[in-house]
Amino acid sequence: MAKYSGTTVETAIEAGLSALNITREQADVTIIQVARKGFLGLGRREAVVDVVSVDQKELDLASQSSDQVSEFELKSNVQMPQPAEPQTVIENNDDKEEPRLTATEVEAELTQYLTDVIEAMGFAPKIKVEVKNRHRLYYDIAVQDESRLIGHHGRTLNALQNLGQIYINRSGANSVEVVLDVANYRAKRREVLRKLAQRTARNVIASGKPVYLNPMPAFERKQIHASLEDNDHILTYSTGKEPHRSLVIAPR
Question: What's the whole-model pTM score?
Answer without folding.
Answer: 0.61
